[in-house]
Amino acid sequence: MRNTFLRSICAAVALGASAVLPVAAQQAAAPPTVTVGGVVYSQYQYDLKDSAGAGNQNQFSIQRAYVNAIGKFGSNFLGRITLDLAPTGAPANQPIRLKYAYGQYTPDGSALSYKFGLIHTPWLDWEETLWDYRVQGQMAMERGGYLTSSDFGAGIDYKQGPDKINGQSTIVNGEGYSGGSGDFRKDAEVRLSARVMDTDDSSRVGGLRLTGYGQFGKATGGADRDRYIGMVSYRSKQITLAGEFGATKDVAVKGRVISAFGVYKLTNSKIAGLARVDITDPNTSAANDKQTRIIAGVSYQVSPNLRLVADLDRVSFEAGTTAHNLGLFQAQINF
Fold this sequence. Notes:
By secondary structure, this protein is mostly beta strands. The protein has four helices and 16 strands.
């Protein structure tokens, strides 16, 4: 059953690619390659105090599971399909959704790649790569409901040399991959990141970088939906440090998100310490609606396919509501 399911994914990627590539190009291209893999985020959570005040709740769960099929067709074309399993309780309530489904074309020698379909949005995929601990939970702007990691639309990726400058611009529906197509209104999103100082990490998030993001659009029905983010980050093979400021506007309500995080990897060790602070103010004109989340923990890289994380996740509320303290033990499994 599992093999049939994976073969179906591979066939879908290959079929999508054959529909996009001209016949002559397909005949001249090298034999296609398709790889299938995935990632699972599993978790044990102990609540020192739950939302109803009962306390001492504990549970095991799968927070997320993805299956990826990536096909490469010659040196210019790539196709990807990712299925997202988001457990929500009983098996009957666990939907399987498309997370990514797109074709990507990169002309020979070009710094630009063109995408069409259900694509990455510019900010979250980049920031999650910098943070590198998506297993712990969503980034601040996504937790607040302001951004989504993928959407239906078209986009262009930009890369200058060894990622000295990289960026992405998109035109998307704006409702996210699980929010439907919305109406005729669309959102424009753009990110640009520049490395101003090199480190021993030359990846797209490495070095001392200045990064900016803007999103401008209208939600279904016509309400304003704007986001602005500025970040300063530093990443080497041993240290990650970042600070960001985000401003949001929905209808006439303006919000603010401030986040800072860091990771320190012990020298010649598989052990790392991580810490993060997220401050979310949904309405800067209202009082007592601010939330502060503090994350602190350690991780151990058992193997390239298994990472373990233990951390404390504390959420406090400006309004005086009792803080919510979570003890989390998490595993990221790649296959």
